[in-house]
Amino acid sequence: MQTNDTNDVPRNGDGPELDVNPPAIQRVAVTFDINGATRSFDIEPWTTLLDLLRETCGLTGTHKGCDHGQCGACTAIVGGQRINTCLALAAVYDGASITTIEGLAQGGTLHPMQQAFIDHDAFQCGYCTPGQICSAVALLDEGELHSRDEIREAMSGNLCRCGAYVNIVAAIEQVAGLRDRAGERDSQSAQSQAQSHAPSHPQGHPPKGARA
Ligand code: FES
Ligand code: FES
User: Fold this and answer.
1) Architecture of the domain made up of 28-103
2) Fold of 112-196
3) 147 alpha carbon to ligand 2 midpoint, in Å?
4) 127-177 pLDDT, tens per residue?
5) Hey, CA dihedral for 64, 168, 149, 144, is it positive or negative?
6) What lines the ligand 2 site, CB under 6 Å?
């Protein structure tokens, strides 16, 4: 091989010839049930479910946030489980049933979780909201939410940059049937806090001569 005199780096044109006609990419045939409709596609093997939903199906309610499995904005329900669709290769899930935020309302009636998010003002910009709602719906279907702490833990993969967490948890509590108990607990806790902070004397100061 000919090299430069100075540093032994191959000169242009001296290396192996590049194949400028690589073999055609083998596409993959997949079929899904998406929000109740059977749909088939011929996709490139590296297509993520997120890109399939957004770019091919036009279901843009599933949002792309980090695209790295860190934020939960892309959450959809696949085979009954919530997944980050940005990390899911569509070909791997061939044949699965997929529910996106667009598929939750039935006949013009919002899903109870969607309604609860409205009732509790559980969003500001709304970017995280479809992922939050899909995540919460799948969690409820798993029947694993029995307390506020469990909700917080289970929802910790869904980030909200607007910080609407308190209202998000309240919305999920409502649909999980925890809201009344949580409300009672909150009011008991508020009462006991109010009592513990109340001045021990009506004027807030002990009468003269009394011990503090
Ligand atoms: S976009 Fe998928 S986790 Fe952030
Ligand atoms: S409502 Fe804005 S990111 Fe959650």
Assistant:
1) Roll (3.10)
2) DNA polymerase; domain 1 (1.10.150)
3) 23
4) 999 999 999 999 999 887 889 999 999 999 999 999 999 999 999 999 999
5) negative
6) 123-129, 160-162, 164
